[in-house]
Amino acid sequence: MTLEPILLDGKLKDRLTHNRDPALRARVLTDLLDCRDDDRQVVLARRRMTDQPWIKATLAAHNGTAPGDRVSTQNTTAPTG
Known about the structure:
Elements: H1 10-16, H2 22-32, H3 40-49, H4 53-63
């Protein structure tokens, strides 16, 4: 299925590619504006993504290093016998 190109007016394009949200910026650049993954703007936006608080929190939770995470010290093997 071929989709018709989306025409973005200047204001909308500026809002969607604003540096405030690098994840959105990278997605808009690649998906709507057809920039390649190795485009300088896409690469810079993706590098900045890891500095965002919500991404840091997600990565910390995934890695078990989020505040409040506890490591279980209980024996997790099934009892024998």
